[in-house]
Amino acid sequence: MEEQRFPNGFLWGTATAAFQIEGATRADGRGESIWDRFCAAPGAIVTGETGDPACDSYYRYMDDIALMKGMNLNAYRFSIAWPRVIPDGSGKVSAAGLDYYDRLVDGLLAEGIRPFATLYHWDLPQALQDRGGWANRATIDDFVRYSDAMAARLGDRVKDWATHNEPWCISILSHEIGEHAPGLHNRKLALQVAHNVLVSHGKAVPVIRQQCADGQVGIVLNFTPSYPATDSEADQVLARQEHARFNLWFLDPIAGRGYPEDAWQGYGKDVPYVEVGDMETIAAPLDYLGVNYYTRSVVHDPTGGQGSCTLNKRSEVHLSDRDWETYPQALYDLLVGIHFGYPFKDIYLTENGASYHDVLLPDGKIPDAMRIDYLHKHLSVLQRTIAAGVPVRGYFCWTLMDNFEWTFGTSSRFGLAYTDFVTQKRTLKESGKWFGKVARRNSLEGWM
Ligand code: FCB
425 C-alpha vs ligand 1 centroid, how far in Å? Predict the structure, then answer.
């Protein structure tokens, strides 16, 4: 395997999300979140599990930090559970909730691991959902207040902030497709949620900066680039449309370009209500863009304009156990497109990884050559991207250890470490050992 060399100062980390690892959903006054409610519905989670205990990280965060240290990592992207900090979303701030994140951050810093905090990774306080959730503009102000409280408490030590993780998932996946909490099926509502989430981002950015003047503030978007299955006009039109709806609908507004015109027209009466000043708010200048990339979509319209279909289960390509195609070239195309087309100063790859059916062998090893191959290919592409002049400053693998993978429960394993969900023992997979070596070689000797 060729050497994986990155610039000096490049950050090597993993990413997690509070609901996926913390467990302890009722401890120390934590409030109910929309994911607690969603998991309780029969059939919502394929394994019938809930987010408790997940990886029990509320109590075992020092084990997590030791795992990172063992892989020579120098950054960690985690999220803060809003209902742990403000149990009903808008009322009293919980001292115990704040204390937990204090301990986590201090533990990371003691090991030389730079904390990247994400304020919202999908666990809205249920009390806010009860009055309309993100579709209600009052939630915007609650989010800003929560962001302010977190930045005030941690801003002396946490310098890297993201407002939201994946607004597409927060809105479309959860409110139109209905696959994630709160499980609704209403496109108009979903687009309003998307808009309100973006406004909340734009309003929170200056508030976080005020608390943390020497910090970096950004947002994390998920990208699924679309490629036409054939070079027919219909397929190309469809690919452009998917790209506009999935990616540009979120990227363009935060970069000050407003919503993409063609997608806006296409949504017809479902477009969101936009208040005067919203688009300027959403375009708050950012220090960086976080990019989550896993796979692409390949689209085909056999009817020549009447219908569409997404071809993600093609037999000729390599698929993960989630049926996601391994296609690293799309990462290059995406990052080059973002850098040369948009004004972001820095870019972080904030999530990238793959789920496979990992097995813990009697000798204690978890051989996952497929994951090593996936990571290796994407890191190679990332090197090429950096060489092409794109300022990618760090790579966060999804994820540190197998965890509660939303509707898949613990059945979908993305970790660099294997989690035994009975004993909570974490064991590095072969990919984790490999990733640790790449990180160590690069921190010893940069190439630029
Ligand atoms: C992303 C989410 C993350 C995880 C990975 C597999 O969309 O941000 O929480 O579920 O997918």
Answer: 22
416 CB near ligand 1 (under 6 Å): no
Query: Residues 207-222: what's their mean pLDDT?
Result: 98
Which positions are catalytic? 166, 351
For residue 400, report the distance from its CA to the centre of ligand 1, in Å.
Answer: 12
| Residue pLDDT, tens place only, 66-96 | 999 999 999 999 999 999 999 999 999 999 9
Query: Which of these ranges, 131-140, 161-170, 315-324, 414-423, has the smallest mean pLDDT?
Result: 315-324
Give distance in angstroms: CA of 346 to centre of ligand 1.
Answer: 22
Nearest-angstrom CA–CA distance, 443 and 9? 8
Q: Which of 164, 405, 411, 416 to mutate to test the pocket of ligand 1 (most atoms within 8 A of CB)?
A: 405
Pair of tokens at residue 405: 């993978």
Indicate whether 311 pLDDT > 80: no
Q: Give 321's pLDDT tier (boundaries 50, 70, 90).
A: confident
If one residue of 123, 351, 352, 408 were mutated to test the ligand 1 pocket, choosing by the most ligand atoms within 8 A of its CB, it would be 351
Amino acid identity for residue 202 in this structure: G
Check if the beta carbon of residue 322 is closer than 8 Å to that of residue 412.
Answer: yes
Instruction: Find out whether the beta carbon of 351 lies less than 6 Å from any atom of ligand 1.
Output: yes
pLDDT category at 313 given cuts 50, 70, 90 is: low
Give percent helix, percent strand, percent coil of the chain, each to the nearest 5.
45, 15, 40
pTM for the full model?
0.97
Interatomic CA distance for residues 19 and 84, integer angstroms: 10
| 35 touches ligand 1 (CB under 6 Å) | no
